[in-house]
User: Fold this.
Amino acid sequence: MSQTALITGASSGIGLELAKLFAQDKYDLVLVARNEGKLNELAKDLESKYQIKTKVLSFDLTHDDSPQLIFAELQKENISIDVLVNNAGFGTYGDFKDNNLTTELEMIKLNISSLVEMTKLFLEPMLVRKSGKIMQVASTAAFQPGPHMAVYYATKSFVLNFSEAVAEEIKNTNVTITTLCPGPTTTNFQKISNIEFPESLKVMTASEVAKIGYNELNKNKSSVVITGLRNKLFAFSVRFLPRKLVTKIVASI
Assistant:
């Protein structure tokens, strides 16, 4: 019997690359994003290449009722989710005092509130079945404050801490939580966030990041995954530096 993976933010970037990897392993897919046209194109392509089933759900996860509507739709169609990938998220660049409040509140809803609600809704059936996997896409931003992206960094810190805590709570079950923490990655994130990475910065592709996360997910144990040696070194080094110094370093980058 085939398994089903639900991926949010599946229309581009890391979410799209993860969808390809799941499809290659014959998972049926539930693809969630706002852009229905892109989702339909992806679904058609994956169905043709890998002979899987796909379901497209066009929802804006910044809307309060979206997670409940997604869950209800899948329950109605008797679709059980074996793997939940909470990938949807965005950031903005600029000083907090200058950024648009509505946009930053939407960021909090998408990066935090919808992730928590999706996790709550789909975790319970997994625990009842005594099997399931969850991937939370955080960021290396989770490990320190982020001047000029203050709210984004704070949301990713929440995702990391929340995911590690829940993973500990369910450690004696057969359900796992993999928290993926990519560093700078080539996706639409830069365009949406209005940032440019310096040429000296090692930027991974979405495909590279997705493969690392997918391989770790399949180890069937809860873990935090930092992609790339430089990112790992930085994430661990900030633990031993004064936080004021770390904040200044991040601001300069």
Q: What stands out?
A: The first helix runs from residue 13 to 24. The chain has one domain: 4-252. The longest strand covers residues 175-181. The CA atoms of residues 30 and 253 lie 37 Å apart.
